[in-house]
From TrEMBL:
Domain of life: Bacteria
Limits of the HTH araC/xylS-type domain: 237-335
Name of the molecule in the record: AraC family transcriptional regulator
Transmembrane among keywords: no
Keyword line: DNA-binding, Transcription, Transcription regulation
Regions annotated as coiled coil: none
Phylogenetic placement of the source organism: Bacteria, Pseudomonadati, Pseudomonadota, Gammaproteobacteria, Oceanospirillales
Length: 337
């Protein structure tokens, strides 16, 4: 059995990277080819999906080619709503920025399904939080670019400064760090525990956009159809991503995952039952998927892998892996070498 890692990013996002490379005087075609991508194909099919490992590698080679750790901020300057495809059109047809941000949080998997996006509402601020899935490598430049793009789009509708209150990033502090402070025009904290864009709630809720209900409904239908084809709207897929996020933090239980969606245990269990599955089944599928990843991609000893995947001891992990794959973890690792 091979690992089922299949997290992806929409191809249109790589086109913005290509435009930023050209603006920096770097030809994008050779860099794209070096990571297994072709500019012509991406241009013809911008709604196709790119494996996240290819995109992460593209960010790496782009940073090296430009010698610019703030390259993600430059990419945002090249992004238009169409780089988000129908989600971008939905964003600009909402009534307010607050509603637009909620749509981004609802349908972010159209852009990439390699993480979780959620909103943290406080009396005077709204936090736009990105949580990459643990064990899935996502470039810090991708986080920079997403936050910067959200600000670029929002600034088209905000008539005053001060929309972004502060920014926190998990990435290591770059040298120099001034480009981030200049771009967001607010304090930026690096090496933080969470990636969060903190926004002025009053400005979000009071800033009108186009407010075209008919266009918004049409665009949302297109978004939902796209995500349905990806199976990204099913509760099974949502729960699997949430399990991935919380599992490696040691919280692999139904209550923790249900809280991610502000649901009760019973309600989430019912939704999964309606789709013919259960939390236990999805947990085991995700544990198996991550087990393959760690056994193939890392040199971690089996006892550490067992701990990361929420098993109380190595014996339980060995028995579970044998049941799932008809061989023991070390046997599987040796076969892949």
């Amino acid at each position: 059995m091979t690992t089922q890692y299949n997290y992806t990013t929409i191809a249109a996002w790589s086109l913005a990277i290509s435009k930023a490379l050209k603006a920096a005087g770097v030809e994008p075609e050779p860099l794209l080819a070096s990571v297994g991508l072709a500019l012509g194909q991406l241009t013809e099919s911008p709604e196709d999906r790119i494996p996240i490992e290819h995109m992460t590698r593209l960010w790496e080679v782009a940073e090296n080619a430009t010698n610019n750790p703030a390259f993600g901020l430059d990419v945002a300057k090249q992004v238009t709503p169409m780089h988000f495809r129908s989600l971008g059109l939905l964003f600009i047809s909402c009534n307010t920025l607050a509603q637009a941000f909620q749509k981004l949080a609802d349908y972010y998997t159209l852009v990439s399904d390699s993480g979780l996006i959620r909103l943290d509402r406080r009396p005077d601020q709204i936090g736009f939080i990105i949580e990459p899935l643990k064990g899935v490598e996502v470039s810090p430049l991708a986080i920079d670019a997403f936050f910067a793009t959200v600000l670029q789009l929002s600034n088209q509708f905000v008539a005053q400064s001060g929309l972004v209150v502060s920014v926190s990033l998990k990435r290591s502090k770059p040298k120099p760090s001034k480009p981030w402070a200049n771009f967001f025009n607010c304090p930026v904290q690096f090496e933080h525990e969470v990636n969060c864009l903190w926004l002025h709630r009053g400005l979000l809720e009071n800033t009108s956009i186009l407010g075209d209900p008919q266009s918004a409904a049409q665009n949302e239908a297109v978004v939902r159809n796209y995500l349905t084809a990806m199976n990204a709207l099913s509760w099974s897929e949502r729960v699997k991503r949430a399990i991935h996020s919380v599992l490696l933090s040691g919280e692999s239980n139904l209550s923790t995952v249900a809280s991610v969606f502000n649901l009760s245990d019973r309600t989430l269990s019912r939704y999964l039952k309606e789709e013919g599955t259960s939390f236990r089944q999805l947990l085991q599928e995700k544990q198996n998927e991550l087990a393959h990843y760690y056994l193939i991609k890392t040199a971690l000893p089996v006892n550490e892998i067992a701990h990361k995947l929420g098993f109380s001891d190595t014996s339980n992990f060995n028995r579970a892996f044998l049941r799932w794959n008809q061989c023991r973890p070390l046997e599987y690792r040796s076969r892949q070498q």
